[in-house]
Amino acid sequence: MRNFVQFILYSLRIALSGNSKYYAWLASLLVLVIFGTYSYLYQLQNGLIITGMRDQVSWGLYISNFTFFVGVAASAVLIVVPLYVYNYREFEYIVTFGEFLAVSALIIALTNVLADVGRVDRLFHMFPIIGTPNWPDSMLTWDIIVLNGYLLLNLLIPGYKLYKKYMNQEPSNWIRYFILLSIPWAISIHTVTAFIYAGLSARPYWNTALMAPRFIASAFTSGPAMMILVLLIIRRYTFYRKYISDKAISTLTQITLIAMIINLFLLLSEIYTVFYSATVHQISLKYLFFGLEHDGKLYAALTPIAWISVLMQVTSVGLLLPKRTRQNFKALALACALNFGGVWLEKGMGLIVPGFVPTPIGEIWEYMPSFMEAVIVLGTIGWGLLVYTLMLKVAKTIEGKQNLPEE
Amino acid sequence: MDRKKEAQDKDMGRRDFIKKVAVGSAVTAPLMNFQIPIVRVSLDELLQKHFKEMSEEEKKRVIERLEKEHRERYGVDVKIKTTEPLKGVVWGYALNIKRCIGCRRCVYACVKENNQSRASPEDPTVGEIHWIRVVEIEKAKIEPGTEGTDFRTKFGDVKVGISLEEGEHYYDPEKVPEKEYIYIPIQCQQCEKPPCVKVCPTKATWKEPDGVIVVDYNWCIGCRYCMAACPYWARRFNWTWPYLPKDEINPDMHYLGNRIRYRGVVEKCTFCIQRTREGRYPACLEACPVGARKFGNLLDPESEIRKIIDEKRVFRLKEELGTEPKFFYYMD
């Protein structure tokens, strides 16, 4: 126990010390967090009226970002499986990047839920014993269970391994069971999140069996893309570069590429089925890609976002397919940024909002997030990145100490 | 059996503990009145139980507090009831779309009766909340299926159809009804299989024994999942505090019905639970100038509503979704 306390204190010391660049990075994240927190307090005081949401589109930026970042969290499994199931050693060094990415993405996802509920003071009504969770009927109740479970798993596994490293001991074998458990768990978090929407017959746009597969595919392409970006940045700007092999990056690149192709294939399947059958239910997808006309006015706020998102995703495939561009780190970084941005737009605005347009009784009402709402979301992302930075700093310093003497 | 009871007792014990700390004694009273800053919620309110888990005594105490809240916040003396559902009754509603003239008197009678938010003269963000929406549809756009297909239900055969995708609920002509249009007032359809109840993560909304879907405004967390799940757009969210002038408040209130809602919770039509449980008609029915609205007990084969379902051409909205509304539209 005393060792553990020392470990925590040691970690804190590492996390809070660094060069001036490190402090500048932390400070800029802190600015985001402060603005976000201020806006959130303002929202608490004035209610959700300060957002762009209304009865017609009753979920917006918060739930979109929640959805997207659950996907990013799930994608950590793509590092865990090759390493622990197939014993792919190239991922040994980068596995903490994945696990802590999961933690940070979950923090972003969960804080977005906090921002979205109207009565945050009553959130405990969802929990067992102190509340009345509607389990197993409500997918939101399921989601709270699997998300919090996944968060705990991804704190426990890397935390335990680091602690053992700090103590100069080999990790015990029991942690392996938790690692294996985390694999189906990762799939479950994004599946349940997809089921939140897919189960609603009231919203034909979401009511498709492809929803969960599409969620998984888009998560498995945008997650590794984000990871590659992080690894490239770390290779360029820090002295940990020698531990991140070209081969690890190339493997991640392949995963990203394949998942993106599957993602686009699923999108195409959806588009085909909806538009070819052309029932009344095509109206939401039509709104997303072409806009809707009503009384001589065109409603098409999301149209540019939809096309830009598709264009970004297709371009990223175009950049990743040829070997020459795939192995060029500048082109690779661009491809990953396009991939991540494209999926974020698709999941962010393209998935949640059109589900509400038109309303079930035929009203076309366009949603635009308010400024405050956007700042709150930026704040949650700031939180995530801050936690990610601090945790990586600790992990890499402790791991580095153990590895350096080998030089 | 014994074990089950034991578990129940234990359950009660745990909740009672919270409650004992929460209410009553002179020592804890000031503590319970403590308001958590920013969200402005008293500990007493925060620790309140789910409506269905409260004993009669607890309900009484909560009602006292709520009446006090109404007095302090809106300056009116109100009476909040917890009238139980009538035995052997399942409420059903029928609406004659051939008669409806689209005058929206039902909409405003509902607003008045059920204490919905009015438009604030000072704050433009505080708008009116309507539980009833009257959708205007061109006669030509009614699906051909409307006049034909039979569909068997628990309460009699109905016809299928009407597409709402082409509806307009902001119609504003000089005079209604317009010739080429029909009007379809839509409020909560009180589904037998309500998707909103299924998705609620906290069981804050449920179906009462008389078939009415209600919300515990003190248990709703405001996640708005039910709004996404409702195929009839029948649920409203309080994006801010409702605005109600003192002299427009209806003081005859029900806990699960028309008491004034909080900011951040969902509300909806309850077929005027505060009236119907005392043998009165819903306010929208009484306001209808053309007698298009009929209301009654679906379990009574002799009731007017059952006669309508049996004899008229009847349809329900979005029958294909399997929600089994207890709101029937008919033509004569």
Structure description:
- The complex is a heterodimer of chains A (407) and B (332).
- By secondary structure, chain A is mostly helical.
- Chain A is 70% helix and 1% strand.
- Chain A has helices at residues 2-15, 20-46, 61-74, 77-85, 95-116, 139-166, 175-198, 211-237, 246-277, 283-290, 303-320, 323-326, 329-351, 371-403; strands spanning 292-294, 297-299.
- Chain A has a two-stranded antiparallel ribbon with strand order 1-2.
- The model of chain A has no long low-confidence stretch (mean pLDDT 93).
- Chain B has two domains: 2-81, no CATH class; 91-331, Alpha-Beta Plaits (2-Layer Sandwich).
- Chain B contains ten helices and 16 strands.
- In chain B, strand 9 (205-207) and strand 10 (213-215) form a beta hairpin.
- In chain B, 45% of the residues are buried.
- Chains A and B meet through helix 2 and helix 6 of A and helix 6, helix 7 and strand 11 of B.
Which short descriptors sum up this protein?
heterodimer, A: 407 residues, mainly alpha, Formate dehydrogenase/DMSO reductase fold, two-stranded antiparallel ribbon, 14 helices, 2 strands, B: 332 residues, alpha+beta, Alpha-Beta Plaits, 2 domains, 6-stranded mixed sheet, 10 helices, 25% helix, 18% strand
SS elements, strand count of chain B:
16
* Count of domains of chain A: 1
Indicate the radius of gyration of chain A in whole angstroms: 22 Å
Enumerate the spans of chain A where pLDDT stays under 50 for 5 or more consecutive residues.
none
- The number of helices of chain B is 10
